[in-house]
Automatic annotation (TrEMBL):
UniProt KW Cell wall biogenesis/degradation keyword: no
Location in the cell: Mitochondrion inner membrane
Bilayer disposition of the protein: Peripheral membrane protein
Protein name: F-ATPase gamma subunit
Gene source species: Rhipicephalus microplus (Cattle tick)
Amino acid sequence: STFCPASKRFSPCVLDMFSALQRVGAFAPVCLQTRNMATLKDIRVRLKSVKNIQKITQSMKMVSAAKYARAERDLKQARPYGEGAQAFYEVADIKPPEGKQKTLIIAISSDRGLCGAIHSSVAKRIRTMMQEDPQLLEDARIICVGDKVRGILQRLYSKNIILSFSDYGKKPPIFDDAVQVANAILGCDYEFDKGILMFNRFKSVVSYATTDIPVFKPGDRDRQRKVHTLRQSSADVLQCYQEYSL
């Protein structure tokens, strides 16, 4: 046995075991963590750093407020032109052909920004469309305007992306930027039957609506009876209007 009653001692093997535990510190006292009050110097340094961050934040708020006011003013001036061009197709009741369709999806976002939901909402809408109609995985092609939406869709539908644009948000947008994008879209080799332009429609600082509007090709316009008064116009005029509306 390990304990001898006659000698009132443990056997040598047990003593060796206790000595080994002492060597590894099994019976060493536990060091408790102590906390000390911050000195006045530490508090002074902390207050100074917080005030510096506050100044930087206030400066960023002033800059962002000025940029927001300018962007909102430009948007209000440009929005009637887009709504007027779209009203022509709504009044004429132009619709894409029925049946199996080759779909072109134009997804618009920005290149930078910390508003993740604004960028991801466009990608979520496209993903929902793909899930509801599996045929779109084969027939649809995607054009991305902005790095944010391209980064999301590249992981999901890399085979469907045919064009992508970036560096359009560093400066205030102008008409020439839209012309370059529209010409690239109209000049791509993909012959589509139905086009969808998907973007976030601005409402307020904290509110937006993910919107999709149809994109038509010249053949869709010629099939409608309500636009017979324009049949006497030259093909160049109608083509220019098609490019302008896009």
